[in-house]
């Protein structure tokens, strides 16, 4: 590995009737995953791990690079849990499976977790911002967008240090249950709170808007990006203690 960052793309090509998931067409989903993978391979030099939980054979599409030093594909049979728990529970299991089976994911790595069908156009700018944050602290930093009282952490893109996942997030994932209104985003926010109060990790919002191309799996609608000015104002509020704190 030539750097300490990887992109982890989470995938579920065949949702098989997952609740609260309007985008069910596996051909459309596959096309979106392939487009995103190609985009990150072309527009970044980061190692990419794509982990998919319906045992889909992707090798015909990526024979030349399947086992290269930049791209790793892992698929497993991980979508047969109780569907009432929702797709967020499945995504958490994907992340944990990646940690247990990827050759790219190791200690001292920061994982840039991205929902696998989405393209974050300014990912390199976000990464540069993150590196500048790290230069000002001795702690690893968890970075994502959150609501004002840190009860929901928005998970389309999250900078997740290895130790945060192993020591905090993975201990909480069995609590994820969409039917009980305890979603992935709620458990992620609780894990962030625990990590920060342990005094082992720092947390930050993004300093700028992350610009996404893609479609929501929940609504099957095109994602609309927020105003960059609103995001920056929220970041300032966070820095003075009026956002993202409990």
In short:
This protein has helices at 26-43, 87-101, 123-134, 162-172, 184-197, 228-239, and strands spanning 5-11, 48-52, 71-75, 110-115, 119-120, 140-146, 153-161, 201-204, 212-213. The chain has 246 residues and is an alpha/beta fold.
Describe this entry's structure for a reader.
The chain has 246 residues and is an alpha/beta fold. The chain has 6 helices and 9 strands. The strands form 2 sheets. Strands 3-2-1-4-7-6-8 form a 7-stranded mixed β-sheet, with helices on both faces. A two-stranded antiparallel sheet has the order 5-9. Strand 1, helix 1 and strand 2 form a beta-alpha-beta unit. Helix 4 crosses helix 5 (184-197). The longest helix has 18 residues, at 26-43. It is globular and about 50 Å long. The mean pLDDT is 90.
Keyword list:
246 residues, 6 helices, two-stranded antiparallel ribbon, alpha/beta
